[in-house]
Amino acid sequence: MPETPDVGTGTQAAAGCVSAVGVVGDRGALQGGRETPLVYIANTAAALTSEAASRLEKWELQSVSRLLLSRERIKHCCLSRISREKNVGVYHSLSHSSSHYGGLQTCGSVWHCPVCAARVAERRRELLTRAMAAATDLGGHPLLVSYTFSHKRSDTLSGSLGAFLDAQRAMVGNRPYKRLMAKYGIIGTVKALEVTWGRSNGWHPHAHVIMFAPAEIDPAALEEGLYRAWGPAADRRGLTMTRERGVKVQSTFGKVADYVAKWGHAPARRLWGAEDELTKSHSKRAHRDDQAGSGYSPFDLLRWLNDTGESQAAALFRDYAMTFKGRRQLTWSLGLAALLGVAADAEKSDEEVATELADDAVLLATLTPGEWRAVRFANQRGQLLEVARSGDVLALRAFVAELVVRVAPVIGYAV
Questions:
Q1: Residue spans in the chain of domains classed CATH 3.30.300.100
Q2: Measured between alpha carbons, how far is 290 from 393 in angstroms, rounded to an integer?
Q3: Partners of 35 in the beta sheet?
């Protein structure tokens, strides 16, 4: 049976509630950019924590992305079973206080899929946290370096990104950069790509790099040296920049949280660190009171489309999705992961990470094909996992049983 699209809005999620869940008997249609439910069968409008609302929102945004990218792997992600012979497993991890599915196809795309992006980003964040701890144990001091360039509304994303990546490769291969790394004893780097779009200046590809120094160094001096290496490399590829914005070096124990605050993201449990800056760009949010002055992250474009139905948001997201398709989220410098004892995990692909089970994951329940059909039809994939987060098997089975009873009369046959 085809997917039942998610309904509700980001505004509702932010308010701490989830509206009644829609049911449609076919793929649904984008009417003005959003999917319109035909029948309502469930209501889960209980108050939610901000974290729970965010988790539910990613399923909603995944459905929006799926409609835009109907020929990509996201079409079947966390929706279609691996095979007709496989049931769907619901797993619970006590250490992560999380729940997830098994036996389903996954796309593993950090660029296309909010669901996979969240899962992969959290694992990458844990990996970087371990790497930073190992570097600190060796007496090292991690720094956060940001590279950017000037851009304008008429610039194409593919052209800007291509020039930016060429300039980055040229910089790290040039003698000034190598001399600078040797001068400060830099043992390695981890680079992450990011992109935003702004109404005034268009696409803005940029990179964040964790640079591992052997001891605390002067960020201002390193920044000046990096600008002298970055500026000429960028200029030869037609990119321009100002001294103030071309390169920025920050201590990871300093004001990284201030840098992220402009996106309106307030982590509920801890301060935002450099490991988050590299791996969780998908969860940043543009300020809604000044979207013209701030940027939209890629998944902000999905929120924009879901909230307003504007076709521009759809076109922008498709452009981004095709340009970033297949690119690596993180790039480790040669030998660094091995030096810090994380090589095995650093070498895993996004697809591998997206399907991994936590070490302590236990199988709470197995859903039959009919039960999974009911979950899909009622559009309750996210809500079911929220129930499973408690680890209460009886509560989970009761939720599924009630769902089946509600669905059967709507679709006209027993599941």
A1: 139-295
A2: 45
A3: 30
pTM greater than 0.85: no
Cα separations in angstroms, 283 against 79, 84, 99, 345: 22, 34, 19, 22
- Please check whether the domain covering 139-295 is classified as CATH 3.30.300.100: yes
Say whether pLDDT at 291 is over 50: no
Tokens of 248: 């920025």
- At residue 214, the 3 state secondary structure works out as coil
Determine the residue type at 250.
Q
Q: What is the Cα–Cα distance from 334 to 225, expressed in whole angstroms? A: 22
Query: How far is Cα of residue 200 from the mean position of the Cα atoms in its chain?
Result: 24
Are 138 and 213 contacting, i.e. CB atoms less than 8 angstroms apart?
A: no
Tens-digit pLDDT profile for residues 331-361: 999 999 999 999 999 999 989 988 887 777 8
| Token code pair at residue 187 | 């043992």
Tens digit of each residue's pLDDT (9 = 90 or more) over 152-203: 999 999 999 999 999 999 999 999 999 999 999 999 998 888 999 999 999 9
